[in-house]
Amino acid sequence: MQRQQWWKNAVIYQISPWSFKDTTENGKGDLEGIIEKLDYIAALGVDAIWLTPIFQSPMNDLAYDITDMRKVDPMFGTLKDFERLLNLSHALGMKVMLDQVWNHTSDQHHWFQESKKSRDNPKADWYVWADPKEDGSPPNNWLSAFMGESAWQWSGERQQFYFYNFLPSQPDLNWHNPEVVDALMKRAKFWLELGVDGFRVDAPNFFLHDPQLRDNPPRPDDAPLPDGVAPDNPIVRQLFKYNFCREETFEALKPIRELVDQYPGVITLAEVTFCEDSIVLSSQHVGPDKLHMAYNSALLVDEPISAKLMHDTLKKVEHYFSDGGNCWIVGNHDYGRLKSCWTGKDVNGNPYPDEFYHGIAAMLLAMPGTFCLYQGDELGLPEAKIPEDIPPEDIKDPFGKALYPEVPGRDGSRTPMPWKSYAANAGFTIAQRAWLPVPKPHLNQAVNDQEPDPNSLLNTWRRLMHWRQEQPALMWGMTNAKVLDTDEPLFAFIRESAEQRLLCMFNLGDTPVQYDLSAYPDCQEVKGSGFTADRSGDMLKIPAYGVFFGELNLSEADE
How far is CA 418 from the centre of its chain? Predict the structure, then answer.
């Protein structure tokens, strides 16, 4: 059973091939670059890697605009390169997950080219088309999540508007049409037959729209903003009621699950953000006839981290994901870097010190559920800034181009991996110029500088992930934890398996805290994590930003 449920407490390393390693000297990363660095990835101790799209694309949006879902884009390499990456990863004990973008295609996809020709061609209903209003304006008030303007684009050829949730070059597929779903599943099967271990499903809460095309209501002034959406994004002016986040989506996920269930051990990970309550909605995408896991915006909050925030978030997640399936993210190709999360400052407005991020690594790896680690976050890279690190004229993200400077876009977390501090472009490419510049602050955090330092953040992540593999409660334990009621700034919970009960304590503040262990008289500190705490009798003293792991008596489990 454990082999089939490897994902329940897994660590997944997210790779953006664009920015990982370039071997073709064109300034953009490729599959061969990932192969070259597989030993580095395996040394981290992760369970799986997730690749953002590698498919044929005009590359208007980091390859999330696809023209052929069964072809590797030549920019990244060949299908044989991918198969070699897959086989080598498996040989190193790592699973491989691929992004699947099923909400939309590129406007250059042959499906769309056919669909826009007329209103009665075989693929006329494969996308979402609608007539204009009498005055020639778009059918309703829906807004694009990326562009801050109408989500409808006029097609002179068909004399209708087509719907797009993100970019005009990414027309939305019509999930109300079963032919579309069948075609998507056939393309997914191609990769399953090759032996991939899972799919990250892009934006499933955007799959279905209201067939009646009703206007979204305005967001009341006193209504909370949606999770994980920049407050300056014009889309927050509306409630997300009719254009996406539809209840019908949950039923539409069944064909995906039916397909992957034919391949034992293969899993699905949903991205569920851009919604009113991402914890609740993401949990509704998970279940025996839905997807296996979902990540959400739970930790993507614009406030300093605190024990209360973590306590309340974990309790809420465990309520809605009572059978597991939650996946934690902080850094991400869409949502910035871990080091720039939680405002990057503590409750007193001071930047978090390096010690904080070592403790956060321990916390994220000990939490129940799956965790996605984004490339470069193991190095503690700060998010690149515009214009300091990336000149405005070098912005590549279409979202950033459309809304800058009000919304800076996503390039800040997409800059190249710094491999060598002394090399041009930090060793990412020998081309004269990388597709995005390497920020100067990243050079002193390059891999070559951190590897020989036993106290570097990189080696903390490595040590913790390998130590984690020796803790049954973290690897194979229940996906729910016993969250303890502790005073600020101490966050604590107990993880449990048949072999181990593990007390996990994290001081999220800048001063030492004390905790009375008399309720756990047989508690013994677990060595090897790299963290230490002082103990005198039953009194435990955890240093600022410190961590304590203690093994508890299994016989106390039901007390």
Answer: 21
Q: Which of 47, 172, 202, 334 is catalytic?
A: 202
CB 227 within 8 A of CB 278: yes
Helices of type H across 195-273: 248-252, 254-260
Catalytic one of 197, 271, 378, 496: 271
DSSP 216: P
Print pLDDT tens along the chain (559 aa).
343 488 999 999 999 999 999 999 999 999 999 999 999 999 999 999 999 999 999 999 999 999 999 999 999 999 999 999 999 999 999 999 999 999 999 999 999 999 999 999 999 999 999 999 999 999 999 999 988 899 999 999 999 999 999 999 999 999 999 999 999 999 999 999 999 999 999 999 999 999 999 999 999 999 888 887 888 889 999 999 999 999 999 999 999 999 999 999 999 999 999 999 999 999 999 999 999 999 999 999 889 999 999 999 999 999 999 999 999 999 999 999 999 899 889 888 999 999 999 999 999 999 999 999 999 999 999 999 999 999 999 999 998 888 888 878 999 999 999 999 999 999 999 999 999 999 999 999 999 999 999 999 999 999 999 999 999 999 999 989 999 999 999 999 999 999 999 999 999 999 999 999 999 999 999 999 999 999 999 999 999 999 999 999 997 665 4
- The rounded distance, in Å, linking the Cα atoms of 155 and 162 is 7
Which H or E run contains 55? Answer: strand 55-56
User: Which run of H or E residues covers position 283?
Assistant: helix 278-284
Report the distance separating Cα 317 and Cα 490, nearest Å. Answer: 19
Residues 399, 210: Cα–Cα separation, whole Å: 25
| C-alpha neighbours within 13 Å on the C-beta side of residue 221 | 0
User: Which residue's structure tokens are 């990970």?
Assistant: 269
Q: How many CB atoms lie within 10 A of CB 40?
A: 17
In angstroms, the CA 361 to CA 332 distance is 15
In angstroms, rounded to a whole number, what is the distance separating the alpha carbons of residues 457 and 382?
Answer: 13
Q: Tell me if the bond preceding 489 is cis, omega within 30° of 0.
A: yes
- Catalytic annotation on 202? yes
Q: Which domains does the chain have, with CATH numbers?
A: 11-105+178-468 (3.20.20.80), 481-556 (2.60.40.1180)
Q: Please, are residues 333 and 16 in contact by the beta-carbon 8 Å criterion?
A: yes
271 is catalytic: yes
CB atoms within 10 A of CB 211: 12
What is the value of pTM for the model shown?
Answer: 0.97
